[in-house]
From TrEMBL:
Pfam families: GGDEF (PF00990). This is Diguanylate cyclase domain-containing protein. Keywords: Membrane, Nucleotidyltransferase, Transferase, Transmembrane, Transmembrane helix. Its EC number is 2.7.7.65. Residues 355-482 form the GGDEF domain. PROSITE patterns: GGDEF.
Amino acid sequence: MTRLRTALAGVTAVAVAFQAIAPLLPDAVARAVSDVLIALAVGSAAVTYLRRVRREATRRARAAVLVGGLAAAGWAIANALFFAYEITGVRSLVTPAVCLSVGAALLLPLGVHLLTPPVPGAERYRRLIDVSAVAGATYAVAWLYLLEPARHRGPGGLSTLFATLATGPELAAAAVALVTMSRNLPTRGGRVPRLLGATSVILAVTGIAGLRNTVDGRQWYSLGVGAGYLLAAGVIAVTCHLPTPRPEPAGTRRMISGGWAILPYVPILLAVAASAAQQIGAGVLPPVLVWVLLATFLLVLLRQFLTVAIVGRLAMTLEANQAELAYQADHDSLTGLPNRSCFHRRGGELLAAHPESSVLLLDLDGFKPVNDALGHAAGDEVLRVVAARLAGVVRPDDLVARLGGDEFVLVLAGEPDAAAARIREAIAAPIAVGGTTVRVGASIGLATARPGAGLETLVREADAAMYAAKAVTKGRRMAEPRPCETSPAIDSAAVYRAHLASGPEAR
């Protein structure tokens, strides 16, 4: 960064020094020196850019570097032709030189555009509106300070059409550059496009100032024109050595608070201020200026409507994404049932609302052979079918969740025996998977709520009951084992009222 600042400071010093000594030189010599310096600067940039084309990693970066090389080459050839004209006086050299200069000015913002990430969706239309509005505002300023004065110069002045055609391409290029520079670019990734965009703006301002010099009969280098062209060429010569920015997203903070976002509004504010000064000074605004300003403000209004639509759509998308994330955080991705964390939250709420609730823990019997014989995809399908059946046999107030693996848990707000029977019957039904039919069973443990017993306690008791049922009944029949005598937490027959098991073993 320090080297870049030093190089830019050196280029600026050379431009300012030339502007200072140009009045001391014969006009032809000053033009020749300017042409040579510009041709050398942008010629070296063209060589550097063209050598880098094949080394760039992406197609967009290669296109950007190629466009930059062509723009620099066109500008270098143009100034070489201008220099030849100064030496030989052959007038026919001027026309191709002017065409090449205008072409280079138009290619430059295209390269700036290619150096920035692609604009998605409706944002493209907003950028197009921005370019049109900025171009209208810059044209309004140019009309006040160049085109309108040129129209009143009489026979020696410039026609409005010629002045418009002479400045229009550079004004449009500057508008594209300003809008591109205003994008939310990362700090490091935004250096190259913003430096080149600034070059395009410098060229536009210098071109307008040079045309005003022609209208007023001043020396060509007046109004900073001599320094402007040298400064633009020097910035290109410096920028061509910087690495092509890598695609990287701008941080949220920069997207919200980046000062570059106000850049397109600067020409609009200048147009308003210039029009106000004209109205105060002359008491009237030219009709062309009025229509240009009206069109510009209409575009700004349209842009705001489009912004509101984009923001509204982003808000809806954000709300949908938040809802989706909340759902994913609470639900099992395979079965769609509430997951462990959601079960502990909602299960506690259900127990508090229905003190007579029961916790039922279910572990599939014969699930591993299905996995081993048919594969994990078949096992996943079995889990999805079982989950759907469980959700279909409980009431709306009940809770079904998957704890993990082939283990499910339910909180039943009503009578558990009827629900257990429905669950046993549903799980025992055949399951079509992988071109065949399989059956799985389930060992079920049940714990009934009681005062002072929280959800964690009931889950542990249901888990113990389920393993007892699996060991005693092997998943074939209901079991009524006695309460565990070794644990003071499960010393009531009411807690372990039933240990249930259902379904035949898997085949």
